[in-house]
Write a structure and sequence with these properties.
This protein is α/β, with parallel strands linked by helices. It has 2 domains: 30 residues, no CATH class; 271 residues, Class I glutamine amidotransferase (GATase) domain (Rossmann fold, 3-Layer(aba) Sandwich), CATH 3.40.50.880. 31% of the residues lie in helices and 25% in strands. Strand 11 and strand 12 form a beta hairpin. The longest helix has 17 residues. The protein is globular. The relative contact order is 0.14.
Length: 305
């Protein structure tokens, strides 16, 4: 079934060209079903790229999904055209009185800053506090996951000696979890970050479940016992060339950056990367939507929480 997004959103044409079913607003209005309402708080500077990546993963689901895009009002994006933001994004003041089946909080390239040094940290805290009572289940990604674990559960992020950068193997610790239904025993996922959370801190925190880890990349997936919050440390939504573009960007800046691990054949940046995470990334998003939203969310959204 399709995702429902505005006809003029740049992602619409991209997804349709990939043979992904995107429903027009007109057609959606004439279907006698209630779509899942999913709010995406996009904290990435390259908003169009990120929104397209996530919308691609939300496409293969059993029900209609109505997606809304949210941005922070306390920080003005320097990399996205203001007309795009005005046309397709809303702000927290416009949604604070509404309820949602699901919410996704993206990563952001600010992990080397302390949380309280991030310009929009107070607003993000307000949004995360609001999600406890107005969202059935929230999926936090990368820095968004570290921010959520710190705000909700007091888990500190820890600096890495070197950027964790590449595609890594992971193991599912809880095979009975619906989030990993259909996964192989070992699966791959991309990472691109300078900080991490420690497994011992997760295990010591009441109300948290550690679901998947990597011997190289550490903690990967965590959720609350009531499944209202999920924290994913990697980027299962990344495109095939995302890490390559990040690598070349950093090289052009003169940064001391290693070739992404387990990504280019024989670690040769001149060769085309091998995608080993697409199916697992799709399953993760699909399972979250199906088992933690569609199967459990109240039909009447006013009854969320």
């Amino acid at each position: 079934m399709p995702i429902k997004i505005p006809d003029a959103l740049p992602a619409t044409a991209i997804l349709e060209s990939e043979n992904i079913f995107v429903m027009t607003e007109y057609r959606a209005l004439h279907q006698d079903i209630r779509p899942l309402k999913v709010l995406i708080l996009n904290l990435m500077p390259t908003k169009i790229v990120t929104e397209t990546q996530i919308l691609r993963k939300l496409s293969n689901t059993p029900v209609q999904i109505q997606v809304e895009l949210l941005r922070t009002a306390s920080y003005q994006s320097q990399h996205t055209d203001e007309d795009h933001l005005a046309s397709f994004y809303t702000t927290f003041d416009q949604v604070r009185d509404r309820n949602f089946d699901g919410m996704i909080i993206t990563g952001a390239p600010v992990e080397n800053l302390e949380f309280n040094q991030v310009d929009y940290w107070p607003e993000l805290c307000e949004i995360m506090a609001w999600s406890r009572t107005h969202v059935h289940s929230t999926l936090h990604i990368c820095w968004g996951a570290q921010a959520g674990l710190y705000f909700h559960h007091g888990i500190e992020k820890r600096s890495l000696p070197r950027k964790l950068f590449g595609v890594y193997e992971h193991r599912v610790l809880k095979p009975s979890s619906p989030l990993f239904r259909g996964f192989d025993d070992v699966f791959c996922a991309p990472h691109s970050r300078y900080t991490e959370v420690w497994e011992k801190d997760i295990r010591a925190a009441p109300g948290l479940e550690l679901l998947a880890t990597s011997s190289e990349a550490g903690v990967y997936a965590v959720k609350t016992e009531d499944s209202s919050q999920f924290f994913i440390m990697g980027h299962p939504e990344y495109d095939p060339d995302t890490l390559a573009r990040e690598y070349r960007r950093d090289i052009d800046k003169g940064l001391d950056i290693a070739v992404p691990a387990h990504y280019f054949p024989e670690d040769d940046p001149a060769r085309v990367p091998v995608v080993r995470w697409r199916s697992a990334g799709q399953l993760l998003y699909t399972n979250w939507l199906n088992y933690y939203l569609y199967q459990t969310t109240p039909y009447d959204l006013s009854k969320v929480r």
